[in-house]
């Protein structure tokens, strides 16, 4: 008898995430840009998996973006621009994009496009 799954959508995302993470590894030369999307906010981290460290992180709760009145998609685009600017300042030009099990659509896509606009390559 199978145990009941409380949240099928979350379990599906976890399965997709594990399938993606088997293939994606961030290195020192090409770290991983990981996205987490909650109901209200969006978070982005640049991670070096070879050393198991988070190099930098930006979210829509940052002081630069917190007080801006805009839609969640527009905020996600600004988070992408901000993380790209910080990465370029830290001499990181290319990353591997990890959508973290989310569909490449909406806010996740807006964050990726915002990072590409500022010059981050992936």
For this entry, give a set of tags:
about 120 residues; alpha+beta; Nucleotidyltransferase, domain 5; 3 helices; about 35% helix; about 20% strand; globular
The Cα radius of gyration reads 15 Å
- What is the CATH architecture term? 2-Layer Sandwich
- What is the CATH topology? Nucleotidyltransferase, domain 5
How many strand elements?
4
| Structural class determined from secondary elements | alpha+beta
The neighbouring-strand order within the major sheet is: 3-2-1-4
* CATH C-level category: Alpha Beta
Mean pLDDT: 92
**Helix proportion range:** 25-40%
Q: H/E series, N to C?
A: HEEEHEH
Give unreliable regions as ranges.
none
Structurally, how many domains make up the residues?
1
Shape call: globular
User: Helical region count?
Assistant: 3
| Beta fraction | 15-25%
Largest sheet: 4 strands, mixed
Question: Can you characterise this structure?
Answer:
With 122 residues, the chain is an alpha+beta fold. The protein has one domain: Nucleotidyltransferase, domain 5 (2-Layer Sandwich), CATH 3.30.420.100. 35% of the residues lie in helices and 19% in strands. The chain contains 3 helices and 4 strands, in the order αβββαβα. A 4-stranded mixed beta sheet has the order 3-2-1-4. Strand 1 and strand 2 form a beta hairpin. The relative contact order is 0.19.
């Amino acid at each position: 008898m199978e145990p009941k799954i409380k949240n099928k959508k979350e379990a599906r995302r976890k399965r997709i995430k594990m399938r993606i993470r088997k293939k994606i590894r961030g290195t020192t030369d090409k770290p991983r840009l990981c996205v987490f999307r909650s109901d209200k906010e969006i978070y982005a981290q640049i991670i070096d998996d070879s050393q198991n460290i988070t190099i930098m992180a930006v979210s829509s709760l940052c002081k630069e973006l917190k007080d801006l009145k805009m839609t969640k998609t527009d905020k996600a685009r600004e988070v992408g621009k901000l993380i790209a600017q910080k990465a370029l300042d830290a001499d990181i030009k290319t990353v591997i994009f990890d959508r973290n099990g989310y569909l490449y659509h909406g806010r996740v896509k807006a964050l990726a496009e915002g990072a590409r606009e500022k010059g981050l390559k992936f």
